[in-house]
């Protein structure tokens, strides 16, 4: 039972990779499969990718909760957890872009990616100088917001794969909600990025 949190974190990494490969294959981005997939197979890959993302996102809550509950917090888990989060988010953003033109998603997606890479670089530089950047409460909510928004965006992008009708007026409000949530996630992501930047600047100055 002590190893369960790390197993869940590792599962998130595996599911994130599967999700990205499935979306890339559905979009025709895998060379040896390009042109070989039927529309039904492409839709199936999109559905599997969405479900893989949802399951992976759920593990993000349970691995940390179980680690605290079982008193099984480890250095390896502390390293794997943020890596799993970033791989899942970045993989979902890239997979979303692979599904086709996403004008309303392009800018917030880019901002989220830029922030994630910047904070990772800050952590690496800070670690080399003995500076630790503690995870803020807003940053924890940021991850939850990102994953929820991306789940909706992937669902909207895979609308047809779930057999849902494009007529009837349901797609438009769901799309608006998904885009608004994703923009909100991008704003919160930038705010937390600015917080980490300021933390690092003050630590280096001190």
Tell me the name of the CATH class: Mainly Alpha
- Classify the helix fraction into a percent range: over 70%
Total strand segments: 0
Structural class: mainly alpha
Query: How large is the radius of gyration?
Result: 18 Å
- From the N-terminal CA to the C-terminal CA, the straight-line distance is 42 Å
CATH architecture: Up-down Bundle
Order of helices and strands: HHHHHH
What this model shows, in words?
The radius of gyration is 18 Å and the shape is globular. With 206 residues, the protein is mainly alpha-helical. It has helices spanning 4-26, 39-69, 75-98, 103-128, 137-157, 171-205. The mean pLDDT is 87. The chain has a single domain, classed as Four Helix Bundle (Hemerythrin (Met), subunit A), CATH 1.20.120. It contains six helices and no strands.
How is this structure best summarized?
By secondary structure, this protein is mostly helical.
What attributes does this structure have?
206 residues, mainly alpha, 6 helices
What is the topology?
Layout: H1 4-26, H2 39-69, H3 75-98, H4 103-128, H5 137-157, H6 171-205
Helix pairs in contact: 1-2, 1-3, 2-3, 2-5, 3-4, 3-5, 4-6, 5-6
């Amino acid at each position: 039972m002590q190893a369960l949190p790390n197993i869940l974190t590792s599962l998130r990494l595996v599911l994130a990779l599967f999700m990205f490969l499935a979306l890339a294959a559905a979009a025709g981005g895998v060379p040896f499969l390009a042109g070989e997939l039927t529309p039904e197979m492409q839709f199936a890959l999109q559905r599997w990718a969405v479900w893989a993302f949802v399951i992976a996102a759920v593990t993000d809550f349970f691995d940390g909760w179980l680690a605290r509950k079982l008193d099984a917090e480890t250095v390896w888990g502390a390293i794997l957890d943020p890596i799993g989060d970033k791989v899942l988010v970045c993989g979902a953003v890239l997979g979303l872009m692979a599904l086709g033109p996403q004008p309303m998603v392009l800018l917030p997606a880019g901002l989220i990616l830029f922030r994630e890479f910047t904070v990772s670089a800050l952590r690496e530089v800070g670690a080399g100088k003995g500076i630790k950047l503690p995870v803020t409460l807003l940053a924890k909510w940021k991850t939850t917001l990102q994953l929820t928004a991306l789940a909706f965006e992937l669902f909207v992008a895979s609308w047809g794969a779930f057999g849902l009708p494009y007529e009837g007026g349901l797609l438009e409000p769901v799309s608006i909600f998904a885009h608004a949530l994703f923009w909100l996630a991008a704003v919160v992501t930038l705010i937390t990025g600015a917080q980490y930047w300021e933390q690092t600047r003050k630590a280096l100055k001190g």
